[in-house]
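Consider a typical record:
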Amino acid sequence: MSGFAKTWAWEQKGLTPTERCVLVGLADFHTEAHGCFPSLSRIAEKVEVSVDTVHRTINELVKKGMITKTARKRENGGHTSNSYEFNFTPIMPPPFPQF
């Protein structure tokens, strides 16, 4: 899990509650080097929504520019879970008080 990804996910504005939950759920699987690739059912279980809701929500997060979704295939050509990369935006630290 990437602590930065989780912090970043919580800091995003303009999301519905479901979008925020799915984004934070994805952040739980995110790695610094490789993004994440959990199955839709794994995310649905974690966030406690249906697989269809996760699918729709991920597509909305892609449209909003929060994540990039890439299809992955097995060596035999079969489908496997998608890969998700976070489109990080800067997080500004709180201002230090002036003394």
Remarks:
- Helices lie at 3-11, 17-29, 40-47, 51-63.
- The two ends are 38 Å apart (CA to CA).
